[in-house]
Amino acid sequence: MEKFEKLTAIAAPMPLINIDTDMIIPKQFLKTIKRTGLGVSAFYEMRYNLDGSNKPDFVLNKEAYKDANILVAGDNFGCGSSREHAPWALLDFGIRCVISTSFADIFYNNCFKNGILPVIVTEEQLRLLMKDAEKGSNSRMVVDLENQNIETSDGDVIAFDVDPHSKHCLINGLDDIGLTLEKVASIDAFETKMAQSAPWV
Q: By residue range, what is the domain housing residue 84?
């Protein structure tokens, strides 16, 4: 998993509430078990017309936001079914950070496991960030996980909280497998001990 330390990027404003996982990646794209290739289908129904052409009014189709790596979204982001394909799709599209006033619990935890930083802010802070994001490609936000703050293009700094364990995993690029491999020396020692004391196991 790619490490997340400090991200300086364009932020796309998506001021919709209750963006659920089916809106992020519709059910017809859930057949794959690969984490790559889903970015083209992210926000499919919001992003494309029936003939497959881009909807010009959708924020991520606009030239100013086509390279956005941050989403500033409305309340209750990632609600709905608990599909891990949703963060897979966002990450494959290029989104590394989602900022909102609240997230669905399962989606929130799945983000950390897949290299995306979900940041919870207050409604007042969200309005400030949304306004900054609306400036388009001339605006860059800085999301600093180590120091737990967001800096707007105007220099405003917003602090955020994050679980220490989740922070450790993101900064070090550790998914569940990576966490296990951190203990590989202890695992090997245990296996050697067991082979000697209970070779029949």
A: 6-174
